[in-house]
Specification:
Strand order of the largest sheet: 10-11-12-8-13-14
Strand content: 5-15%
Mean pLDDT: 83
Shape: flat
Distance between the termini: 97 Å
Length: 811
């Protein structure tokens, strides 16, 4: 079973409630708790504490980072319907019967757990830890289905929860209808009407009654169940309906017993799965807490540091605590961000400056953000930040005065610091406010230096605030100690809250007093009262601050220039990438267009080849029929006697299967779309093509065009097929000057005659003119089956005025 919110205390960091209070950690936890979706998540949030185990801290921060990542993706994990039903599950496990409303809460929680599980498991690549938490939820869907199947949303047990309940309720309704009908009849009865206050039926103590006038109660025999406050009305159940009323009440009791039985059975199921239900609520609480952390990160603008899953900004202690542009999470409005560094090269950071200048805020910011990081919360700091995983955090901030214990402010601070000195080590972060204050300045400064020395010797990381000038000099001279200060605007007499590391702060008391109107002679008198060392220190600090301001301005200008240069560089790189991408896209588009155009050309060529072959076959059939007609006309003409050959069989033969076709030289072939038979002149080649003679036309065809084949005639050896000679035809024709409707038929007849005469190339003279006749003639050539190509004649042969036409080959 997954542990509940109590696990938040596991491996807790060594600190007391006082440290948590002064660093305002509970206020952050309260803000987190308000962002949870249900009481289980709120309980987990309120129980959250910092821990010291590095693996646990990293795991918590990785879960937080996943929630932040989902939020940045716009993915919302909905926990609607989640309920903390752990106490209900424990009661059911002990054998108690849950009410219908309580069982509905169990069903809602179960359904919410299953919904969240399915959602997060699908998001496993984006949020593996959250998916793992959700994936461990047991199979509790049947519990929800059982409850919702037996109880409706209003908390009423459904009629079909059991066959017995359905039958009982049917009888209850039937008895009720009979009872009510009988009561209505009696209320409307003319014999009873004078005795009734009103002709209505009402209920008293679960029994149907009539409102009878008190003075006429004897007119209605029955049982008195109630009377009015004035005594003028008595409510009587007539004896005639008592049995019906008793029957109705008995059935209602039976109904309640059956309902109780059903609730008991369902409660037993809940009790048997209590472990899975409690575990599911614990897991929902952890998921709710993670989602609340993601929301808190968005509110605090603390998402940048949690963008990566490795959480490498968490370091082993001792190490450098570096908070880049850190913001206090509880401050509202325009919060000044500061960079705070301690540990590593410098083990102690001493912050000086005027009161209300932000020293304590900087101190608390460092401590609070450290605690938040160790608790797995998002921290409002930028990239480059690092947080060591300290074993202990000590804070002495605020007024430690105690009247009850007779302790002054100074005594209270010293008591607290003594405890810190005894417990602090290299795994500790120590935060001390107003070190050495509350006593004689000289002794307080000496004591403060000794305390810092002791903490340095123990290896602790220290951040302290002070007003003592001696500590400024001490920090300047001590290798592992560094000064820091908060700025003060002398013009507006207000703090800027900006923290500067490496420079001690000025008290500015005399300058502030002068600006507020203190007489000049008083200021001068006070100045002369300062020791020469104090005056030299203040003067030196003023000069250093001026030099630092100038250096910061130059650094800011250099940074701005570098950022502009980097922006220009990125813009140029992006432009080069865009141009390279555009060039690649254009090359790819051109390649695709060429490929598509080449494919279209190939398709067109294939289509043209098929059309030409089909046209050749059709023309061959037509030529054969013309040859037969010519032979018929020339039959009376005496010709040299030749041996007669059997005619080729005519089409009409049954179509053969492809594998049954036999094509050998001399075989008879019938082609699809041709009404006459032809003679094969060759065997098919590797592409399935062979030569065929159709009348005067000799051409090549494919096996796919053959419908059927026949064996060659056995008595045709050594003989040839004799066909009439083709008529003579000229090799050129002139249609120059003719209209389109005159020229085109003439050219078409010319092509037909030239083809039958066996001409391979002919000339068509159409003249130049406007080009209309030339275009019309060539368009006819494009679709004419006998034309395989055409070209413009050579200039010496007529040029644009003559087209040379290539005809389909004949023998």
């Amino acid at each position: 079973m997954v542990r509940g919110p109590a696990e938040a205390l596991s491996g807790a960091i060594a600190l007391d409630d006082r440290t948590l209070e002064v660093l305002e950690f509970p206020a952050v936890i309260d803000r987190l708790a308000r962002l949870t979706a249900f009481s289980g998540g709120r309980e987990a949030a309120l129980a959250l504490r910092p821990v010291v185990d590095r693996d646990e801290v990293v795991r918590r921060q990785r879960v937080t980072a996943e929630a932040v990542h989902l939020g940045q993706l716009g993915i919302e994990v909905l926990l609607g319907g989640a309920r903390d039903i752990r106490s209900l599950a424990e009661r059911a496990e002990r054998g108690q019967v849950l009410t219908a409303a309580e069982l509905l809460d169990v069903a809602d929680a179960s359904r919410a757990a299953v919904t969240v599980q399915r959602a997060l498991v699908r998001l496993q690549p984006e949020a593996p830890l959250l998916a793992n938490i959700a994936g461990g939820i047991g199979d509790i869907a049947p519990v929800s289905a059982l409850i919702n199947g037996a109880i409706d949303d209003s908390g009423t047990v459904r009629n079909d929860a059991s066959p017995e309940l359905r039958q009982i309720r049917h009888e209850v309704g039937k008895a009720h209808d009979q009872l009510q009908q009988r009561m209505q009849t009696m209320a409307a009865s003319s014999s009873l009407r004078p005795a009734l206050q009103e002709p209505i039926v009402t209920i008293r103590d679960g029994r149907y009654v009539l409102p009878v006038k008190s003075e006429m109660r004897s007119a209605v025999r029955g049982v008195v169940h109630d009377s009015s406050a004035s005594g003028a009305t008595v409510y009587i159940e007539p004896m005639a309906v008592v049995e019906l009323g008793n029957r109705w009440r008995e059935l209602q009791v039976q109904e309640q017993h059956e309902v109780d039985r059903i609730l008991r059975e369902i409660s037993e199921v809940v009790g048997s799965t209590s472990a899975d239900l409690i575990d599911a609520v614990n897991r929902l609480s952890r998921i709710d807490l993670a989602v609340a952390k993601g929301k808190l990160a968005k509110e605090l603008d603390a998402q940048e540091l949690h963008a990566t899953g490795s959480q490498s900004w968490l370091r082993e202690a001792p190490g450098e605590l570096r908070l880049v542009q850190a913001r206090h999470p509880l401050l509202a409005g325009d919060v000044v961000a500061n960079t705070i560094i301690v540990g590593g090269e410098h083990h102690a950071l001493l912050i000086t400056g005027p009161n209300t200048g932000g020293k304590t805020v900087a101190l608390k910011t460092a401590g609070l953000l450290t605690l938040m990081a160790l608790a797995g919360l998002p921290i409002p700091a930028d990239k480059g930040s690092t947080v060591p995983i300290y074993e202990s955090v000590f804070a002495d901030i605020g007024d430690e005065q105690s009247i009850e214990q007779s302790l002054s402010t100074f005594s209270g601070h010293i008591t607290s610091i003594i405890s810190v000195l005894e417990r602090a080590n290299e795994q500790s972060l120590v935060l001390l406010d107003e070190l050495g204050a509350g006593t004689d300045p000289t002794e307080g400064a000496a004591l403060a230096v000794a305390i810092v020395d002791r903490l340095l010797a123990r290896g602790a990381a220290l951040i302290a605030t002070t007003h003592h000038s001696e500590l400024k000099l001490y920090a300047h001279r001590t290798p592992k100690v560094v000064n820091a200060s908060v700025e003060f605007d002398l013009q507006s007499l207000s703090p800027t809250y900006r923290l500067t590391i490496g420079l001690a702060g000025q008290s500015n008391a005399l300058a502030i007093a002068a600006n507020l109107g203190m007489p000049r002679e008083v200021i001068e008198s006070a100045r002369t009262g300062l020791s020469s060392e104090d005056r030299e220190l203040e003067s030196m600090l003023g000069e250093l601050r001026g030099q630092l301001a100038t250096a910061e301005e130059r650094a800011a200008q250099a940074t701005a220039d570098a950022e502009r240069a980097e922006t220009l560089r990125r813009e140029r790189e992006q432009e080069l990438e865009r141009l390279a991408s555009e060039a690649t896209r254009l090359r790819e588009d051109a390649r695709i267009r060429v490929r598509d155009e080449l494919r279209d050309v190939r398709r067109l060529l294939e289509k043209s080849r098929k059309e030409i072959e089909s046209a050749r076959l059709e023309q061959a059939g037509e030529d054969f029929r013309r040859a037969e007609a010519a032979a018929e006309r020339l039959r009376p003409v005496p010709v040299p006697e030749v041996e007669e050959r059997e005619p080729l069989p005519m089409p009409g033969i049954k179509e053969q299967r492809f594998e049954d076709l036999v094509v050998v030289p001399g075989a008879v072939v019938w082609l699809r779309g041709v009404s006459v038979a032809g003679e094969a002149l060759s065997e098919p080649d590797e592409r399935g093509e062979f030569e065929v003679q159709l009348g005067a036309l000799r051409t090549r065809v494919r096996l796919e065009q053959v419908r059927a084949t026949g064996e060659p005639s056995r008595d045709t050896s050594g003989r040839e097929l004799t066909v009439p000679m083709a008529p003579w035809s000229p090799s050129e024709i002139e249609v120059r000057g003719q209209r389109l409707d005159e020229a085109l038929p003439v050219v078409e007849q010319f092509l037909d005659a030239a083809s039958r005469a066996g001409h391979g190339r002919v000339r068509v003279i159409h003249g130049r003119g406007t080009g209309t006749l030339r275009r019309a003639v060539r368009e006819m050539f494009d679709r004419h089956p006998l034309v395989t190509g055409y070209e413009t004649a050579e200039p010496r042969d007529g040029g644009e005025g003559v087209t040379v036409v290539t005809l389909a080959g004949t023998r």
